[in-house]
Amino acid sequence: MEDNLKIGEREFQSRLLLGTGKYRSFEEMQASLAASGAQIITVALRRLDLSRPQEPGLLDYIDPARYVILPNTAGCKTAEEAVQTARLAAAMGLPRWVKLEVIPDPRYLLPDPLATLEATRILVAEGFDVLPYINADPVLALHLQDAGAVTVMPLGSPIGSGQGLLNLPQIQIIIEQARVPVVVDAGIGAPSDAALAMELGAAACLINTAVAQAKDPLQMARAMKLGVEAGRASYLAGRIPRQPYASASSPTSDLAVTAS
């Protein structure tokens, strides 16, 4: 049976989204993308050097026939900056969708909820598919869905921290209430974190630092792919409920009598 990820009108086989920052080289990034099996690749527009178009840059290492580029507004501190960046991406011919990040806080890198909601409303009205990055706030997640966001993307823990799913109870509530796919983004440090997010019912995981900064990014990209796939399979299979007592796996009645 097909079990595809649907975001707006787009459909994908892979439920792992991969970022393109922090790699040691473009070649290492390119190989890691291939190893991950990801189809959606996020690109921070502010990382692109448009002043030297003759020199090879990030986009030259991403095959547009193989991947769908998801522009993101990393580095934007206000709703106005994020909206302008999304418009720039569309003007460059990139897909008319955006991972919306509005982060004014330079130390903890926590997203601004009010500015994120404001920018979402503006971009949805302009015809963008908006994928907003948020703290694990169930109330905000509902407001963003009402505003027309095609996903909500709660953080598991601070960006790049590798601390895993510290916001587990809130993420569970967001998933329970969601009318759009929930993509867990930020804080995933190991395949077990990704598997746990998927077991909860998340639609996908977005991962960057855990792969890019691993000792062996290619091997970690493969591991994350398997973690996401295992977690999704577990969610679909339906785990047994947790119980406060033991339950024998073998029958306890009508046992064969052994000779004395």
TrEMBL record:
Homotetramer. Forms heterodimers with either ThiH or ThiS. Residues 6-251 form the Thiazole synthase ThiG domain. Pathway: Cofactor biosynthesis; thiamine diphosphate biosynthesis. This is Thiazole synthase. It is an enzyme of class 2 (transferase). 1-deoxy-D-xylulose 5-phosphate binds at G160, A186, G187, N208, T209. The active site is at K99 (schiff-base intermediate with dxp). It is found in: Cytoplasm. It catalyses: [ThiS sulfur-carrier protein]-C-terminal-Gly-aminoethanethioate + 2-iminoacetate + 1-deoxy-D-xylulose 5-phosphate = [ThiS sulfur-carrier protein]-C-terminal Gly-Gly + 2-[(2R,5Z)-2-carboxy-4-methylthiazol-5(2H)-ylidene]ethyl phosphate + 2 H2O + H(+). Belongs to the ThiG family. Keywords: Cytoplasm, Schiff base, Thiamine biosynthesis, Transferase. Its EC number is 2.8.1.10.
